[in-house]
Amino acid sequence: MTSSTPAITIARLAKSYGGHHVLKGVDLDIAPGSIFALLGSNGAGKTTAIKILSTLLKPDGGTATVNGYDVITHAAEVRASISLTGQFAAVDEILTGYENLVLVAELRRVASPRRVASDLLERFDLTDPANKRVATYSGGMRRRLDIAMSLIGDPPIIFLDEPTAGLDPQSRIAVWKTVTGLADAGTTVLLTTQYLDEAEHLADRIAILNDGVIIANGTLAELKQLLPPAKVEYVEKQPTLEEIFLAITAHGDATPVASRKDGSR
Predict the structure, then answer these.
(1) In what order do the strands lie in the sheet with 188-193?
(2) pLDDT at 61
(3) What is the pLDDT of residue 2?
């Protein structure tokens, strides 16, 4: 596949459940090696689109190709080209992080599964807890392990369905770094999220799915042009709560804020 050929192409994609039309003719082209964010409210059809692209669900109409393969007529080739990380970490809590990775590597029949597992543990900063049961991992650690498992076999395309849902700010940033690193290495990432700042920070292009159709598609700069010009005002910028939280927790020597003498807060 050349760099000019889209990694993912969707044309007039449609899907209904009963009488409810979830996708009503979606069209998208996603460039290889890019991060593409698909935004939309609950029920907009984001997860349905991901399921169709990953061959878990058949469309009612339209076409979709992934890595040059049709999702209906060449489903096996599509599955060999992709990896899917869902909204909840699909890890075995009884096993250790290392054992999870070795198991998946053996199932995918990659060469040297133990070496692959060790390399991924180091890449995702999971070497220290590698031999601990996943049940003891934090949410961020589980998510990093889940993404690491999805990379076994070096798939050229990865689907991330709300990968940071429920994570704390530090874990979200760790996942962001991971996603950026994937794209830098040439992996195509299709990301669904409800966090607008996440799409703003990560995505090369952003599409907004609403009521089953794409109502906007472009770079962040292009989407900003859809709004009236901003009114320039000079105000003092106050730090956000997230900036305060990250600044304080980044240093272990932060002094607790004392209560007022009168006991008020």
Answers:
(1) 82-85, 157-161, 188-193, 35-39, 205-210, 213-218
(2) 96
(3) 42
For residue 258, what pLDDT is reported?
Answer: 46
The pLDDT of residue 245: 63
Return the domain boundaries, the chain: 32-55+73-225+235-249
CATH number of 32-55+73-225+235-249: 3.40.50.300
pLDDT under 50: residue ranges of the chain? 1-2, 253-254, 258-261, 264-265
DSSP string, the chain: --TTS-SEEEEEEEEEETTEEEEEEEEEEE-TT-EEEEE--TTSSHHHHHHHHTTSS--SEEEEEETTEETTTTHHHHHHHEEEE-SS----SSSBHHHHHHHHHHHTT-SSHHHHHHHHHHHTT-STTTTSBGGGS-HHHHHHHHHHHHTTT--SEEEEESTTTT--HHHHHHHHHHHHHHHHTT-EEEEEES-HHHHHHH-SEEEEEETTEEEEEE-HHHHHTTSPPPPP---PPPPPHHHHHHHHHT-TTPPPPPPPTTS--
Q: How far apart are the first and last CA of the chain?
A: 61
Q: Which two tokens stand for residue 46?
A: 């984001």
pLDDT at residue number 43:
80
pTM of the full predicted structure? 0.79
Please give the pLDDT value at position 65. Answer: 97
